[in-house]
Design goal:
- The protein is mainly alpha-helical.
- It is built from 3 helices and no strands.
- The chain folds into 2 domains: 36 residues; 36 residues.
Length: 74
């Protein structure tokens, strides 16, 4: 009977540790991506030039704002 409790406590501790680890890692990644967005203005400018568009600063700022708003809504 004593070993059964030890096993149950070990399994419960493992499950709690996995759940906490997942949520902590998720929170860390969300903060990291918010501080370091995967696309910056220079990348956006390069992509637009490759597509044959002449990007204005106003258009780039507008697209960055739209992408940031979309990230905030998720």
């Amino acid at each position: 009977m004593g070993t059964l409790w030890v096993i149950l406590i070990a399994v419960a501790a493992l499950l709690i540790g996995v759940a906490l680890g997942f949520f902590i890692a998720r929170k860390y990644m969300m903060n990291y991506l918010k501080k370091n967005p995967p696309i910056n203005e220079q990348m956006l400018r390069t992509m637009m030039m490759q597509m044959g568009q002449k990007p204005s600063q106003k258009k780039i700022k507008q697209m960055m704002r739209a992408m940031n708003n979309q990230m905030d809504n998720k």
